[in-house]
Write a structure and sequence with these properties.
Blueprint lengths: L1 H23 L4 H21 L6 H29 L3 H9 L5 H41 L5 H7 L4 H15 L5 H12 L1 H14 L7 H25 L3 H11 L5 H9 L4 H26 L1
Helix pairs in contact: 1-5, 1-9, 1-13, 2-5, 2-7, 2-8, 2-9, 3-5, 3-10, 5-6, 5-9, 5-11, 5-12, 10-11, 10-13, 12-13
Amino acid sequence: MYSVLSAILPVFFVAGGGFALRRFRVLDTKTLSSLNIYLFIPALVFSSLSQREIEWSVFGRIAAACVCMVLAMWAFLGWIARGRGLEGQGRVAFLMTMFMNLGNFGLPVCKFAFGDEGLALGVVVMVCGSFLQNSVGLYFAHRGHRGVGSAFARVFCYPMVYAFVLALLCQRTGWQPPLAVSRAIAITGDAAIPMQLIILGVQLAETHLDTSVDVFLAAGVRLCGGPILALAVLSLVGLEGLVAKVFVLQMSGPVAVGMAVFGIQFDVAPRFLASAVSLSFLMSIFTVSAVLYFLV
């Protein structure tokens, strides 16, 4: 239990620092998020993967597992939405809670629980999941405004994708940047995890919670249904060992912060999505701790 709490509590302590800071100072969340997306995360992706061998077969299984998770959560949440009689934007927002927080929450927990190797595998899961979140999730958010092609094309606006490809090329060719450049990238990447947690805390401080039944239901399905479905997916794609543990842990996280951003940007039940993100994060200290207890 001590090792479990040592992996979970630092996430909440740092996010709590961001929460407290926002109470006393006005922070520009958009600027912080831009720094994270366009600078810190790409550096973390490259520094985590460029010097560690990731087998193509493992990458393929992780990608397949992420697709299976999206399909399974889509079907499950759709079934619940029909039972609740949700229609229109309410139904779309409910379905969007299928996506888990792979970066702000998942990466630090993977690092604290499984070390640098766990972090590297967590980055692979994040990259695969981000493709789906920024294509399928974005399509849900603005399918009334634009087509699926436009939503998918947006994925390639993020430098994380190119950092991932470049890291794989470095793995295969054995080429590495000059030492000064590698150190600069590593230092920049080290800032990604604390920055993500601070952003999470700031966004939590700015959220006025909706305490409706559907918010609690969405948060509960994300936190409890995620790891259960992930365990079922493992047998389908053949993941095992540390890769399987990291995948289950990543799939157990709270609702992705990006869904709240999409809700605001495209006016899709923004308060519902922001509340689902915040509530699921607060509840995750109990659910993710339980999942991690069985994994370690």
